[in-house]
Every structure is written in structure tokens, then in C-alpha cells.
Design goal:
This protein is α/β, with parallel strands linked by helices and 443 residues long. The protein folds into 2 domains: 187 residues, no CATH class; 201 residues, von Willebrand factor, type A domain (Rossmann fold). A 6-stranded mixed beta sheet has the order 6-5-4-7-8-9, sandwiched between helices. A 5-stranded mixed beta sheet has the order 3-1-15-11-12, with no helix packed on it. Helix 2 runs parallel beside helix 8. The longest helix has 16 residues. It is elongated.
Amino acid sequence: MRWRNLPLCGRLIGMSLRGMHMIRTQNTRARRAKRSWTGLSLVLVGVGLATASGCSDGSGDADGTGSTNGSGSSGSDIGNDLSASGGSGNGTDGLGGDGGDCGGEEVTAEPVVANVLFVIDKSLSMNVTPDGFTDTLWDTLVESLGTALGAVQDDIQMGLKLYPSGDASADVCAIESGVDVEIASGATALPDIEDALASTSPSGQTPTAAALEQALDYFKDGPGAGLEGKPVVVLATDGGPNCGTDDSCVPAEGCQPTDDCGLTEAETCTVNIDGCGGDGCPADGSFCLVAADCLDDAAAIAAVDALDEAGIPTIVVGMPGSEAYQDVLDQMAVAGGLPAQGTSPKYYKVEDAEGLSQTLQDITKGVIRSCDIVAEEAPPDPDLVNVFIDGDVVPKDSEDGWQFGDSTNTFIQIVGSYCDELEASGASSISVEYGCPSVVIVK
């Protein structure tokens, strides 16, 4: 791939980013096609305005290509270097035109703020201390999450939803509406999140679908609906979702402690999946007699799908204890639009304490390498638009370059090898220029 410099003429929408950080599209412009993100950055620091200069001198023709394919006597050689021709130009306004002024009005691109809601499983099994851990899953999660969020508290907005919630001693599947900590700036929300985690003890079962449904309600109809920026859900769980109403896993003739619980129906009971069978069944009888213990996979996946349809991606983190539910968590990760990788496990699989800490830090501090851009306003002429990555022009090409993502012409998608390069390496800036004929590749 060869990116060449192009003089900045016309109206420039300059988007200045810190380090390798890239811009993520507004949720109203969410891409239809799901794409794996290698990580998630939760900060866009600043937006800068680039001053428009006039176009280069040269001999332009009516379609803006210039008699020497855009070279110009003293202008940019981008036309020759990309074998490019201009789009529908206005004679001297072409890339090789003779000094035409492409515009000069400056337009600001607004930064996108990440509003991250952490949906955390606090079921009774979080009291377990698995191999590779010196403390319980819960204590390790609390410490790791605090460290990860502390590192980005000045850069993101965050909130917390714990589940089950309410009186789990009376109802193991209890779930309350709303969230435990409202999304606010990190510096404001982090102390409240730490207090909420410190004052909570694991109990109850795993009503994952209901918790995700509450997250959607919060962003669509609750206080989260008025937030400016991009909503994101981070789900962390140590097991399979249950607490549904479907009794398909309950054996028709029951299952007693002396039975092997080997019935086909019982195989989708979370207690059986976790190891119940024969002498492993609880002394008071198998939980397989209770509909709430049936694997609630369909509802959990549907809840993630609903979030995605609303433009809210979900990142799935599976801690020790969730291994038996890999297929379900994989499906949830893919439905959420942000799988960890293309092969199984597709969710963020955690195997030890160090891995949990690193995973949470990667998620909260990783790089957005998005190929989507949202301009503040539509261009006066969609044929007079150019996109730049680190100052280098990207050709307009639906297979390898950029294209408009919707009919408003404000949503731009970078595709092909240019997108691959962004996702692999990131970039320090992206800008969109209005006023000069679009650079296209002659094929």
C-alpha cells in the first residue's frame, strides 16, 4: 500500500487523536456488518482544526483530472502516484487545477466519548478460589477491576450493574431495575464503583439475560439515554446464564441424589453441567427439578442481540468456571460485535488472576482501531470529498479505500487493506476534506 501526501485544500474536518487512538462511530451510525475489534480504547482526547489552503497550481480540465492526470506544474503528484483521476470537479478546482480555491470554511468533528457499563456477575460461585488464584474470584475481580479503571478514570465515563441484585437470600434470581452506579466521568464514578463492589458479597444464581435487558433499558429509556457518546457493555461472568422460565431441562420423572441425572433434559441444567451427577447431586435432591436452573442460553444471546441492534456492543469476559459454557459465551461474544478473536474461544477467556487483571486492562486501555468516521455535517457535494490517514490520502473505493456508509454522506467507512492497516497499527489522525474532487483509483 502506498499513501502519498495531498495538499490540504477545501473544508477540512480535522480529528486529532492521542497516540494510536482512532475514532469510533456514533451509535446511531453503527456499522451493519459486525467486525472484530482487537481491543477497545476508551478515550479520544482532542479535536483539532486544520486550516484550508488553496489547491495546487497546474493545468486542470473540466472533470478535475488535469492534463497530466493531476500532476500540476507545482502541485501534488498524487494523481500520478495513485494513478488517480479526480471526481466530478469544477475545472480549476481539480487536484491538478491552476490555483482554484477549493473552499476554506473550517468544520469541527466532535470527539466520541465512551460510556462503559460494567455488568458483573456476583453469583455465589464467585466465592470459589480456582487453580491459579490465591484469592476468590470475587476478591480478584474487585482488585483487578479497580486497577484497570483507575488507569483510565480521566479518560472514560463508567458505570456498574451487578447481578443478581436485590435480596438474593429470598430470591436467588433477584434482579432490580436500573444500575448500581450511574454512568459518569471516571473520576466521579470510580469511588462509587469501588464502594459498591466492596460492600457486596457473592450470592444467588446467574440471571445474565435479565441483567443485560436492564442494561439495554438503561441506555434506551433510562438515564443512559441522555448521555453523549458511544455506549459499551462489558459483561464479566464465571458461569452459564440461568434463572430463565423455560423448564426444558427438568426431567419428566424427576432426578434424585442417587440417580445419575443422565437424562437428555438434565444435560441442559446448569448444575449438571457444573458437575452434578450421581453422588454429586445436592443432598436435598437435584436442582434439575427447578426451571430456574435450566441453561438460559437463548434468552442471553437474544439480550446481546438486542443491545447490538440498538448500537451497543457487548464485550464478554469468561472467568474460571465458565469453560463448560464456551459455546454459549462464544455466541454471545459474536452477537455482541466485539469478539476477542475469530476462533474459539471467541470471548475473552481468563484462566488465572494475572490473566484477569491483564484482560481488564486491555479492554479499558486498548486501542480503538475503527474504520468508521462520522463527520459533523454532510458535504455540499459528495463528489468533492477526500479522506486522509496521518496526512496521506485514501482513495475512494468500495473495495479498498473508503466509501459512504449511509445516505446522509456523513458516515464514512474505510475498507480493504486501508482498514486492515488501521486495525493492525492504528493511526495518529484521520481527516476528511470537503471541496476537492475525490481521489479514485483507475482500474
